[in-house]
Amino acid sequence: MWRVSLVIVFGAFVSMLDTSLVNVGLDSIRNALGATLDAVQWVASAYLIALAVSLPLCGWLGRKVGVGRLWLAAFGAFTVASGLCALAGDIGWLVVLRVLQGISAGLLVPAGQTILGQAVGPKRLGRVMSILGIAVSSGPAIGPAIGGLLLHSLSWHWLFLINLPVGVIGIALGLRYVPRGDRGAVSRLDWTGLVLVSAGLPLFVYGVTMIGEKVTLASVSVLMPLLAGLAGLLAFGFRAWRRAGPLVNLRLFQDRVYAAGSVATLFTGAAMFGAMLLFPLYFQLLRGADVITTGLSLFSLGIGTTLVMPISGWLTDRYGGGIVSLWGNGFTVLTTVPFAFLGADTAAVTLQILLFLRGIALALSAVPAGTAAYAAVRREDLPDATTTVNILQRVGGAVGGALVAVILAQALPEDAEHAFRTTFWWLTGASVVAVGSATWLWLAQRAARADRPIATVVPVAK
Prior knowledge:
By secondary structure, the chain is an all-alpha fold. The chain is built from 17 helices and no strands.
């Protein structure tokens, strides 16, 4: 079990690391390839949009070919695409190859979660998911530091070449240890549903992301994709609820624990990814740190998460994801409020202590909610469950990032210190909403346990 878990971590870590690693090198790529600023931004945007496109297909493919085979194929495609990205001679080819890289990366995390869930069962799910959670949460956090160190002495090509040895090792171990999974009977692919969600999800994520850049809903470039994406998602949801053999089984939401865990993941994701955007800007814009210093300053956050994540998994298995997520989100609120009072001259030691404590809070809030949702469904429903929860986390992350970007951009021209204080108050509010969703999950789990029939022992007559 632990061998499989550690192998799956390879895929999760490298796919999440790439979301922030390449962003550091956009300016170097622009200069090397002679591209415009607008064009080079698509190197990052195309990857994120492609991540969203591939998610809805993960559950169907996992049932069709076996989730282990899907994971291996996705990891192989990601590794090959990484090598091809390093060979790209112009910006157009690089963007196209980043799409391929993003599509394969989008399959790695939900496929890995399904493999682990089917391998260990609900009673030990928290412990193994916590190992995967270390990779998912620490990858974006340390990406800027690794990218900055690479660019300090090497060319931009190494932002992609770094994935090759990790990919080769991960695939080799996966061929040996990862179970291939069962090929199940699946209905015909719902092409209409696939088109609706594959267009609706990236359009919605793109529209929400553009809100953070344009700082207005009135812009056509924001409003049109946002409305089109929302319409596509609503149409997909209506079709999937009514259709037999849908692309993604949304009837799982009839289970109150699964529904509460999924919603808690949505709001926790918004608070978590909003903070991931805000903290690097805090060090760069307010404290004047460079990219490498910023990345190193955030290491204490990752250390706190890494140390406590296994404990979080054990607590989830022992007491339930609801109560752990509730305490974790409550602790997140307490570790966010101090930043609303701190200025640019705050001592570095104080900041590191707060970031370490926030890393602990992140470990207690991020994974337990999703784990509770997975534990509430049957083994054969895990491919659909992991797909849906990851989609909700992606949407929540886009909304949280856009919220932070809009609030900060509106207040930044007046006074940087005031702007960050205001934004941290908004981030605190988002964490309070996450506390509310975690409370719902805790109550749903309590009610589910109360509804279980109590086994009685009937004496046998001698």
